[in-house]
């Protein structure tokens, strides 16, 4: 199975011509499915973009939403609209609303939006204030002295949902692929080849999701977990444990791409092919 991984396409910044080129680029990777790790567009446009993409690519689309997907709207209204569209269109699969999805023998896909949840770094001393606070109703309608609590609440809610999903992954699973928008660890929060400092970390790391992933990987040491995320627009790989690797994808506004193809070869099939040393979930970057 081949999954084309896309992150942060920000399609509201993309011209019609570039959109067509991008969809041709996706098709050229010959995917069996697409996986998008958020920042698809903005709240007033995200459903339209998802429908357009589903009509164009003719393969299942798995995705989570990023902070920009809630701009010009509220978090609840956007999620409701996306859930409604996903229930109507078979090709659309909003992972935040779904339990573990079997991809291949012993391999499952889970996802959660996540949020920069002010649990890592130093929120009080940070000079950063994201556009989120002006562009998303939930923050505009909350007094600034409650923003930190709101961020923590959003991270905790995402982590609680992910915990339920991971607990539902069958005991004999060999691999789990997790899609989320916000890097779950400081070590996976890349900017120009370096990991984040205390100013940016509160808004660019979802510590609660990180903790949930770490606990799952400690409990299930026989299961490999591969996490893909975006949000920083800068790429990097972090190995947190022997069975926990996080890939963060790059992005450029106005120029969407394909971050990698994720190849999934079930363990049973690899053994039959005599290639049992290769990972079950393998990322192929630098696509031709
Ligand atoms: Fe983004
Ligand atoms: Fe983002």
UniProtKB/TrEMBL annotation:
A matching Pfam family = Metallophos
What UniProt keywords are attached to this protein's entry?
Answer: Hydrolase, Metal-binding
Location of the Calcineurin-like phosphoesterase domain: 1-234
Indicate yes or no for the key word Metal-binding. yes
InterPro entries hit by this protein: Calcineurin-like_PHP, Metallo-depent_PP-like, Metallophosphoesterase_sf
Tell whether Hydrolase is among the UniProt keywords. Answer: yes
Protein's name according to its UniProt entry: Metallophosphoesterase
């Amino acid at each position: 199975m081949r999954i084309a991984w896309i992150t942060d396409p920000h399609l509201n910044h993309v011209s019609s011509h570039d959109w067509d080129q991008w969809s041709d680029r996706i098709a050229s990777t010959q995917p069996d499915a697409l996986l998008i790790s958020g920042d698809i567009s903005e709240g007033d446009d995200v459903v339209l973009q998802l429908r357009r993409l589903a009509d164009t690519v003719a393969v299942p689309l798995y995705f989570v939403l990023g902070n920009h997907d809630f701009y010009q709207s509220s978090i609840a209204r956007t999620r409701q609209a996306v859930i409604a569209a996903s229930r109507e269109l078979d090709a659309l699969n909003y992972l935040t609303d779904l339990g573990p999805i079997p991809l291949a023998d012993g391999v499952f896909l889970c996802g959660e939006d996540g949020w920069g949840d002010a649990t890592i770094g130093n929120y009080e001393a940070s000079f950063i204030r994201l556009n989120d606070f002006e562009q998303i109703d939930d923050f505009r309608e909350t007094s600034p002295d409650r923003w930190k609590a709101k961020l923590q609440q959003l991270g905790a809610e995402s982590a609680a949902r992910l915990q339920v999903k991971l607990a539902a992954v069958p005991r004999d699973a060999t691999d789990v692929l997790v899609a989320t928008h916000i890097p779950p660890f400081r070590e996976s929060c890349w900017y120009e080849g370096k990991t984040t400092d205390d100013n940016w970390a509160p808004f660019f790391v979802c510590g609660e999701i990180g903790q949930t992933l770490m606990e799952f990987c400690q409990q299930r040491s026989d299961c490999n977990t591969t996490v893909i995320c975006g949000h920083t627009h800068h790429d990097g790989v972090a190995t947190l444990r022997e069975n926990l690797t996080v890939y963060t994808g790059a992005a450029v506004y106005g120029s969407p791409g394909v971050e990698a193809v994720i190849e999934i070869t079930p363990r049973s099939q690899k053994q039959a092919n005599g290639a049992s040393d290769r990972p079950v979930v393998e990322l192929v970057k630098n696509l031709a």
